[in-house]
Amino acid sequence: MHLDILGIGGTFMGGIALLAREAGYTVSGVDAAVYPPMSTLLAEQGIAIREGYAPRPPSLVPDCVLVGNALSRGNPALEQVLDQRLLYTSGPQWLAEEVMRERWVLAVTGTHGKTTTSSLLAWILEYAGLSPGFLIGGVPGNFGYSARLGSGDLFVIEGDEYDTAFFDKRSKFIHFRPRTVVINNLEFDHADIFPDLAAIQRQFHYLIRTVPSTGLIIANGDDQTITDTLALGCWTPVIRFGTGVNNDWRLEAIDGPNARATLTGKGQNRAITLPLPGEHNARNILAALLAAQHTGVTLDQGIEALRHFRGVRRRLERRGIVGGVELYDDFAHHPTAIAATIAALRGRHQGRILAVLEPRSNTMRLGVHRNTLAASLQQADRVFVYRPRTLEWNLEDAFAPLLGERALITEDIECLIDYITAAAQIGDAVLVMSNGAFENIHERLLVALSNQRQHDR
């Protein structure tokens, strides 16, 4: 059977392409642009990709078309599917029906931390010998790919609240019918599809309605919005985690520089070594341990697995070090995630932090977070901001508290690289944050820093 995937370059649809290929389907796809790591993963599997949404060539007649949620009416490739009355469906629906229908689904949800928590959970289950399937919006270092079928009963899925397709405006995770659900946190995001936080809460409530009474919801008990969402109706046991005294499982004595924390709950007390820095990652780790425990993995097994966790690409990933300057890459694009990422790096890096930001997401483009953006970067020593051409608000106004000695804004990528290279000193960490390819700035910065150091000699 031949699947053609519209929007194959996204992490979710690209992951579906990998699963379908592994399951024996012939897979092709199209996207406006495809960049690493997804482009690399698809190429390694020999999946043919057409760039640009021109109508499909007459020789290519798929059995079914999977439509990504980035496509809307008027897209030439989509209009061709409708005009020719081809069989089509959404990625989440195909995944639910063809891959996850008879499996124990563990869905990791929330505004932040989904990719990291999903990666941790998949690795803990793998380490315990359960061979889970998974589809994750990133590339876990322990696996080297974002999706696989697995040979066990378990399937870990990153539960995104974004909408499903042009014809189905429910959140993707409504399709997944999970038995285990993690809700990490809940804030307003995706302003291009949700009018307010209440609309997002409603989608999470619909998800909660699908969880069986024999399942489990693992919820951040410190997040009032999650508590309010559960109060809309819940028919499933809930375990609450966090730092507050009323949680079932608590994080105590989180020591960032020494990467240690204490877990307390159910009459147990465990000291653990954290494989990732920062309090937000300590929460992600606890959530993954509890989700794995629901499947039968003991807490001791889970803690042992953490010792061998290799992180996730684009989640505070060190891309290189040149002349004493370290370069990190992170997917952070929401003020809460930006502040948490800088704080995590601050906890383990003694030198200056040069934060480089591309406010690229749809929510950023609309200016929803402009009043909190400068504050989220306060812990950085220097701030460099790239102005996307699609931005609909004034960056200078938003960054007024930082402009001058600490912050610089430019819409020229070459100038941005020159400014960063000139500012970087031995012992600095350059932290690049974007939810896109950012004009391949990471590799270009490494080259520029190398050239600068050679010139200085």
From TrEMBL:
Query: What molecular function terms (GO) are annotated for this protein?
Result: ATP binding; UDP-N-acetylmuramate-L-alanyl-gamma-D-glutamyl-meso-2,6-diaminoheptanedioate ligase activity
The catalytic activity, as recorded, is: UDP-N-acetyl-alpha-D-muramate + L-alanyl-gamma-D-glutamyl-meso-2,6-diaminopimelate + ATP = UDP-N-acetyl-alpha-D-muramoyl-L-alanyl-gamma-D-glutamyl-meso-2,6-diaminopimelate + ADP + phosphate + H(+)
Q: In which pathway does it act?
A: Cell wall biogenesis; peptidoglycan recycling
* Sequence ranges assigned to domain Mur ligase N-terminal catalytic in this UniProt record: 3-97
Its EC number is 6.3.2.45
Q: Name one GO biological process term.
A: cell division
According to its UniProt record, this protein's enzyme class is: ligase
All copies of the Mur ligase central domain together span 108-292
Any idea which positions bind ATP? 110-116
Task: Please give the function described in this protein's UniProt entry.
Answer: Reutilizes the intact tripeptide L-alanyl-gamma-D-glutamyl-meso-diaminopimelate by linking it to UDP-N-acetylmuramate.
Q: What PANTHER family does UniProt report for this protein, alphabetically?
A: UDP-N-ACETYLMURAMATE--L-ALANINE LIGASE-RELATED, UDP-N-ACETYLMURAMATE--L-ALANYL-GAMMA-D-GLUTAMYL-MESO-2,6-DIAMINOHEPTANDIOATE LIGASE
Q: Which NCBIfam families match?
A: mpl
Identify its protein family. Belongs to the MurCDEF family. Mpl subfamily.
Question: Matching HAMAP family, A to Z?
Answer: Mpl (MF_02020)
User: What protein is this chain from?
Assistant: UDP-N-acetylmuramate--L-alanyl-gamma-D-glutamyl-meso-2,6-diaminoheptandioate ligase
